[in-house]
Amino acid sequence: MSLLSGKKILLGISAGIAAYKTATLVRAFIKAGADVKVVMTPASKDFITPLTLSTLSKNPVHSSFTNPDDDNETWNNHVELGLWADLLIIAPATANTLSKMAHGICDNLLLATYLSAKCPVYFAPAMDLDMYKHPSTLESFRALQSFGNIMIPATSGELASGLVGEGRMAEPEDIVSFIENDILSKSPLHGKKVLITAGPTHEAIDPVRFIGNHSSGKMGFEIAKAAANLGAEVILISGPTHQKLSHSFVTIIPVTSAEEMYNAAHTYFKTVDIAVFAAAVADYKPKIAATEKIKKKEKTLSLELEKTKDILASLGHIKEKQFLVGFALETNNEIENAKGKLKAKNLNLIVLNSLKDKGAGFKSDTNKVTLIDRNETITTFDLKSKEAVAVDILNAIINQLHA
């Protein structure tokens, strides 16, 4: 999964020969998991057709304020387009378009959209060598960067004129990498290493039976995905689950039992900055697991159980710089029990779930949590998707790290 996954990207195309590369650029954004819309200057349609870009982006392509082919000449709302985008990328950005952007000239839909955009703006210059070096172009670069716009530098090579030098638009794959790296460098968890546990554990009774619980692992996986999207390097220790996650910043360590999770957590804990223990670890396991399948001979079966190792308490005892987060699933005296666990296990933050809250807990796509920090400050959230809850938890961690 790319950092661009789920991003809404608005690609602005101006009239340069490098516009032919935008077909590949759109495909690269789509492959990265982004939703792409395209706005073209009228003259750019001489270099690549709207039909090509519409087919690749799976969205209509806009190049004028109205759609004259429609019976009612519907309006293309530049404000809505600008507000829709998470990122605006103008590529190729010609000397003409750059100058207009720098001076607030608004004579086409792309420029109106640019002036309406509230999101980060990237521009990839493309022009001939003399134009690229001209003082007016250099002034446009300076002005746009002073506005907070981000320049994707042109490269050197053979130009359309036959000259060799600066002015070639960066290649599509390099544009994607540049944007991903820029997002990463500004991400609040960039440079942080995060350990997360997720899912249930299965404690063997015999080779075919086990003691387990109803945890799906979804909450832990959502936290892992959100942490990676915030720039963290994530180690996800997962018990048996059907959850899937493919992200270049996430390494998944599969385990089955509480003992295996204990060993994996201790292996990685000393190297991390943040540890979030969202797994539902079994509290007890059979004292002796049968090596052969237990036959159904008697009306009753007695199992002697023993406590599993307390992963969270053991790590709280040895923690140094780590920010340690635990989960508490309670059915009564929720706040007091959670506060007790926070102190007893030397946590920085505890996430409280109550089974009394409808839509919270296991096997659900939603959750309702209360966060309690070391100062016993209590923050309660409404019922949300587990994806949104993961962001709330990580925002709370980030805020405390910077407090």
Describe the 3D structure.
- One of its GO terms (molecular function) is metal ion binding.
- Pathway: Cofactor biosynthesis; coenzyme A biosynthesis; CoA from (R)-pantothenate: step 3/5; Cofactor biosynthesis; coenzyme A biosynthesis; CoA from (R)-pantothenate: step 2/5.
- It catalyses: (R)-4'-phosphopantothenate + L-cysteine + CTP = N-[(R)-4-phosphopantothenoyl]-L-cysteine + CMP + diphosphate + H(+); N-[(R)-4-phosphopantothenoyl]-L-cysteine + H(+) = (R)-4'-phosphopantetheine + CO2.
- CTP binds at residues 283, 293, 327, 341, 345.
- The protein has helices at 22-31, 50-57, 78-84, 95-103, 109-116, 129-133, 135-146, 172-185, 218-229, 258-269, 311-318, 334-344, 386-401, and strands at residues 8-13, 35-40, 61-62, 87-93, 121-125, 150-151, 155-158, 164-168, 193-198, 203-206, 209-211, 233-238, 250-254, 274-277, 284-286, 305-307, 323-330, 349-354, 366-367, 369-373, 378-380, 384-385.
- It has 2 domains: 8-186, Rossmann fold, CATH 3.40.50.1950; 193-290 and 304-402, Rossmann fold, CATH 3.40.50.
- The mean pLDDT is 93.
- With 403 residues, the protein is α/β, with parallel strands linked by helices.
- α9 packs across α13 (386-401).
- It is built from 13 helices and 22 strands.
Summarize the structure.
This protein has 403 residues and is of the alpha/beta class. The protein has helices at 22-31, 50-57, 78-84, 95-103, 109-116, 129-133, 135-146, 172-185, 218-229, 258-269, 311-318, 334-344, 386-401, and strands at residues 8-13, 35-40, 61-62, 87-93, 121-125, 150-151, 155-158, 164-168, 193-198, 203-206, 209-211, 233-238, 250-254, 274-277, 284-286, 305-307, 323-330, 349-354, 366-367, 369-373, 378-380, 384-385. It has an 8-stranded mixed sheet, with helices on both faces. It has a 6-stranded parallel sheet with strand order 3-2-1-4-5-6, with helices on both faces.
